[in-house]
Structure formats: C-alpha cells, structure tokens
From TrEMBL:
Protein name in the entry: Helix-turn-helix domain-containing protein
One example GO MF annotation: DNA binding
Domain of life of the native organism: Bacteria
Region forming the signal peptide: none
Originating species: Micromonospora eburnea
All residue ranges annotated as the Nbr1 FW domain in the record: 126-215
Amino acid sequence: MRAAQAREVIGARMRELRESAETSLTRAATLSGWGKGHLSRVERGLTKPSRGLVEWYDTTFGAGQALLGQFLDLEAAVRVGREMSLRDARLRRTTGAARFPVVAGGTVPVDHDPADCCLLMDEDPPDGTVVPCGQVFDKTWTVRNAGPVPWRGRWLTRQGAPGVAGRLQSPIRVQLDEVAPGADAVIRIRLRAPRVEAACTAYFKITDATGRLYFPGSQSSPLHCTINAVEWDARRGGPGCA
C-alpha cells in the first residue's frame, strides 16, 4: 500500500470517530492539544498522524484499540510496499533491467494499465457485524472490472499482518478468477474473529502474485472487513459475558 492511500484511510476513520462522538474539530483540538489545522490535514489524509494522536482518538472516541490496530496494519502494509519498491530499484541499478513500471512512488505489475479500475458493488456481511469471538466466517465482496483491461492472474492480498493475536486472522492472499471488462466478480475470503472482544478491521488490495499493487492510487480503495467480536452466550443464543 502507498503511504498516501494509508493516510486517506486512517484519516477518514479518525474523522468518522470524531463526528460519531458529535465533537467539533475545534473542540477536538482544544481537548487534545494538537492544532485544529493539523487535525484537519490528518483527517483529510494530507498529513500522517503520529501514533500518539491515533491513540488519543482511539481512547477519547471509544474505538477500543481498533483504530490503533488499523494504524499499525496500514503502517506495516506501507513498509512492505516501500521495501519491495526499493528492492526493484536496486535491481534496476545493478542489472539495468526495468521489469516493473513505477507508478505513484512505487513499482506496479508489468501489465499495469493507468485506465484499470475496480468498483465495489456489494459486500457481505456488512461492516460492523457482530461475530462471536473466535468464529470462522466468510467475507465476500462483489467488485466490477470498470476498466478496459481483462483481469488475469490477480490476487486479493492482505495488507498488514494476517495472524496477529487480537485481530482478524486470514490467509495472506486468495486468487481471483479471470474477469472481463465490465463484468462483476465475487471475491470470497475466510476469516477468524479474534478470541477476545474487540472491534477490528482487515485490509486487502488487488495485486499480482508478487504482491505488487494494481491500484496504487485512487482508482480503488482497499477492500476491508470490519467486525465487532463479542463473547457469545450459547445458552441465550446471543451476545453475553462468558
């Protein structure tokens, strides 16, 4: 994942949390000690937030460590993408080969097309679904190939760590079927909810087999799954304290 896209994702989530708490930007600046202009730039994805600011939003607006988990996953995804691009750059310098094109500050698949586009049409279960702690479930996204390029040899790849305790666990990647321009595809991945109560999000991007992004910029936001894991009272058939 590119740093700019990670900033947009985490900034939008921070804004959602603040607005859900009915707190103005001015009030948030007063309470936090960070300037209003800085908070505005962070929420618009123009400036990367510090971990301290993310933790303040998480605690103040009741995200229950979910925002911090998202921030750390996105940081890890950006780091992986940067390291891959640096390796490609070293290869070009040592061999003179330019196998992978460079777009949006990093390398992309050899068949990358600037007109390529992916649209999210539907998803199930919806964000915010309550899931029993430790339960295995399937998440599906219906996406449309809205560009002129057939999708072949593409994968849905987890961004960030796929198996960290206290977060959603998933395979690192699943392969997509071939999708013609204008056609829809259903992408399915199996996840496991954390074994402790938590709100958590997992991010995924469409990549080639090596993990290089097909949509490094604004053509496609990350696909994500957000759930609330709760202890389940089997006797009552619903959420409850174990």
